[in-house]
């Protein structure tokens, strides 16, 4: 299969978005993680905000975000994100972060402050958070959910067998536990997760992961082609065919995920508003073991 291709939008629109973000000193996962869709999103005047700095305390083999010892969080960042979202006239705001194992709450309080700041300026906007695992600390998960995001997202990233290889200091079962707890603690907030494809997983492992996620209460799923950020990162093992992506979509539909975004260029926050809206329309009963 050929590598997926993207279309670059009008340069002035990209520059306008980039200039605004730079003027406020904000980071985006679009830039820091080298997302293949970043120019399309910037051209549409959208971005996924990356809070808590741009240095991660973990070093996952698939991720382009720099790792090391980060600085203290910027106390003004929540208001800066809210200002940027307001000036960009976003109707749906996606907020993610680096992992901050150095902070007692993993940055959960900062997430909550950012959600609240956006709500004050934009009470009608949807807000999706894509969080780290907070080392499984339920108090941190509760802190984020108590701020009432529209969607709670935590990516499991890959199948159980490959998790120790690809995800530094992460656990497949811990990620499932985070998602399951979020769904039980705040049943009115949809739970979302995502998987990379092409990292060496077998189709039957993807199917099992989909079932694990659904049993954990996940209702929105994304699966996209893994693309190595550089030659220093974990290499792509396979470019998934459209037929196989179609099979993954079929399995997700059979498991009654209400929001399904599966394809080569799909990423966890790509066109997130559209898939949240679809999920809300299609919401149904939970899957039972």
List the helices and strands and how they pair.
Blueprint: H1 11-23, E1 27-28, H2 29-32, H3 38-43, E2 48-51, H4 77-87, E3 92-97, H5 108-121, E4 126-130, H6 138-146, E5 151-153, H7 163-166, H8 172-185, E6 191-197, H9 203-215, E7 220-225, H10 242-254, E8 259-262, H11 272-282
Parallel strand pairs: 2-3, 3-4, 4-5, 5-6, 6-7, 7-8
Antiparallel strand pairs: 1-2
Describe the structure in your own words.
This protein is α/β, with parallel strands linked by helices. The chain contains 11 helices and 8 strands. It has an 8-stranded mixed sheet. The radius of gyration is 18 Å and the shape is globular. It starts with 10 loop residues before the first helix and ends in a 7-residue tail after the last helix. The relative contact order is 0.12.
Considering the chains and any ligands shown, give keywords for the structure:
289 residues; alpha/beta; TIM Barrel; eight-stranded mixed beta sheet
Helix and strand run = HEHHEHEHEHEHHEHEHEH
Q: Strands of the largest sheet, in order across it?
A: 1-2-3-4-5-6-7-8
Cα shape: globular
Q: Can you tell me the CATH architecture?
A: Alpha-Beta Barrel
Query: What percentage of amino acids are in beta strands?
Result: 5-15%
- What gyration radius follows from the Cα positions, in whole Å? 18 Å
Summarize, please.
With 289 residues, the chain is an alpha/beta fold. Helices cover 39% and strands 13% of the residues.
């Amino acid at each position: 299969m050929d590598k997926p291709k993207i279309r670059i939008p009008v340069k002035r629109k990209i520059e306008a978005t980039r200039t605004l973000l730079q003027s406020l000193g904000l980071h985006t996962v679009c830039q820091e993680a080298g997302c293949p869709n970043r120019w399309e999103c910037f051209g549409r005047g959208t971005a996924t905000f990356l809070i808590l700095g741009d240095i991660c305390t973990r070093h996952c083999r698939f991720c382009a975000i720099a790792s090391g010892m980060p600085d203290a969080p910027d106390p003004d960042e929540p208001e800066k994100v809210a200002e940027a979202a307001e000036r960009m006239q976003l109707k749906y705001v996606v907020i993610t972060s680096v992992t901050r194992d150095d902070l007692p709450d993993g940055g959960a309080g900062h997430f909550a402050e950012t959600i609240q700041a956006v709500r004050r300026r934009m009470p009608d906007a949807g807000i999706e958070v894509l969080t780290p695992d907070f080392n499984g600390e339920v108090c941190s998960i509760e802190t984020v959910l108590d701020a009432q995001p529209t969607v709670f997202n935590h990516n499991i990233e890959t199948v159980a067998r490959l998790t120790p290889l690809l995800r530094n200091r992460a656990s497949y079962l811990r990620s499932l536990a985070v998602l399951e707890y979020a769904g039980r603690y705040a049943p009115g907030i949809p739970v979302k997760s995502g998987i990379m494809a092409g990292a060496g997983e077998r189709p039957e492992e993807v199917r099992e992961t989909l079932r694990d996620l659904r049993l954990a209460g996940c209702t929105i799923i994304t699966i996209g082609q893994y693309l190595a950020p550089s030659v220093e990162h974990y290499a792509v093992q396979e470019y998934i065919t459209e037929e196989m992506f179609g099979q993954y979509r079929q399995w997700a539909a059979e498991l009654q995920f209400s929001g399904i975004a599966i394809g080569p260029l799909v990423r966890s926050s790509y066109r997130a508003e559209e898939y949240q809206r679809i999920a809300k329309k299609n919401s149904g009963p939970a899957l039972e073991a």
